[in-house]
Design a protein that fits this description.
There is one protein chain. By secondary structure, the protein is of the alpha+beta class. The protein folds into two domains: 1-93, Arc Repressor Mutant, subunit A (Orthogonal Bundle), CATH 1.10.10; 97-175, Glutaredoxin (3-Layer(aba) Sandwich). The chain has helices at residues 26-38, 46-57, 62-72, 76-83, 105-109, 112-123, 165-175; strands at 97-102, 136-141, 153-155, 158-160. It has a four-stranded mixed beta sheet, with helices on one face. A hairpin with a 2-residue loop joins strand 3 (153-155) and strand 4. Helix 3 (62-72) packs across helix 4 (76-83) and helix 6 (112-123) runs parallel beside helix 7 (165-175). The longest helix has 13 residues, at 26-38. The protein is elongated and about 50 Å long. The protein binds FE2/S2 (inorganic) cluster (FES). FE2/S2 (inorganic) cluster binds at residues 102, 104-107, 143-147, 150, 152.
Length: 176
């Protein structure tokens, strides 16, 4: 299996994969072992392992990705293929409060663009960016399965639905 440094061109900025591989505490390694033991095919554990690495390192950083490739006996590109598919997997640091505005049809028709622009204005960042203090990051994502209460966004694991300008203001103020 090749662990040569590679450039990932699909990301906004090319990522040079380091030689460094993430390390974890014995407790986290034991947790990873428990997940691996559940699956007859090792690569089937890719998502639970990704969430553990993301939880421990804040995002799927290059050493974390190298670790996953090694533990799962996969190529780095196999890991990136999965990591770039799911919006809940992060390829760069996210804020303490990660705002994901749904931009799919129901939300779009009911004003998700306006919700995004309110966040942009209030936080002083663009979509895909994080505030300088690391408190907030903002992204737009596909349907979060809450179409009946559009427009909506998710902040970390919480849904905020039937959003209005006033509600967005209140929510962001409460987290500032
Ligand atoms: S369209 Fe926004 S939650 Fe489904």
């Amino acid at each position: 299996m090749s662990q040569q440094p590679i450039n990932i061109q699909r990301l906004s900025q090319p990522v040079q994969m380091p030689d460094e591989i993430a390390t974890f505490s014995p407790k986290v390694e034991a947790e990873i072992d428990r997940h691996l033991a559940k699956y007859p095919v090792m690569r089937s554990a890719i998502l639970p392992l990704m969430f553990i690495v993301q939880r421990e390192r804040g995002y799927l950083d290059p050493p974390g990705v190298s670790y996953l490739a090694k533990r799962l006996n996969l190529r780095i590109t196999d890991i990136w293929e999965v990591a770039t598919f799911y919006s809940m997997l992060h390829l760069k640091p996210i804020g303490k409060y990660h705002i994901q505005v749904c931009k799919t049809l129901s939300c779009k028709l009911l004003g998700s663009d306006k919700i995004t622009q309110l966040c942009v204005k209030k936080l002083g960042i663009k979509v895909g960016e994080m505030t300088a203090d690391g408190r907030f990051s903002l992204s737009e994502v596909e349907c979060l399965g809450s179409c009946g209460t559009a427009p909506m966004f998710q902040i970390n694991f919480d849904y905020h639905e039937n959003l209005t300008a006033e509600k967005v203001d209140q929510i962001l103020e409460s987290l500032a």
